[in-house]
Amino acid sequence: MARDRSAMESAELTAVLDALDDADARAIIRGLEEPMTASEISDTCDIPLSTTYRKLDLLTDAALLAEGTQIRADGHHATTYEVAFDEVRIALDEDRDFDVAVGRPEQTPDERLADIWSRVRRET
Fold it and tell me: Name one Pfam family in it (predicted).
């Protein structure tokens, strides 16, 4: 699949490779067809919840999953996770160093606003 370089985002090679080398992390990526909470992911992928949290950290640190917020009427909001890429490309650059780029799907204005809100929430 050809992708314009502007749609690709540089990522840390080791973080991406470590995440994609993990069988549970790959199962989570395959199982995330829509945003889900950690508990839902644990149930869907048949992975213990404590392991699920570690794998979610691994995947979000590699920028392969995006965090969102599920607003609940009772005020106890939940963190949701969704796949944040559609392509990972590893190449040799002109200095013969490995370069990894992660292709991201185009975001709607609502998704961009939700992303900004998630970042603000993390920083406060």
Answer: HTH_20
Distance CA 78, CA 81 (A): 10
Count of alpha carbons within 13 angstroms of residue 61, beta-carbon side: 14
CA distances from 75 to 48, 66, 70, 81 (A): 26, 22, 10, 19
Rounded Cα distance between 114 and 122, Å, is 12
Instruction: Return the DSSP state at 75.
Output: S
Per-residue pLDDT of the chain (124 residues), as tens digits, is 344 443 445 568 889 999 999 999 999 999 999 999 999 999 999 999 999 999 999 999 999 999 988 877 787 788 999 999 988 988 888 988 888 888 877 777 877 787 787 778 777 7
**Residue 49, token pair as written in the block:** 């919840």
Question: DSSP for 49-67?
Answer: HHHHHHHHHHHHHTTSEEE
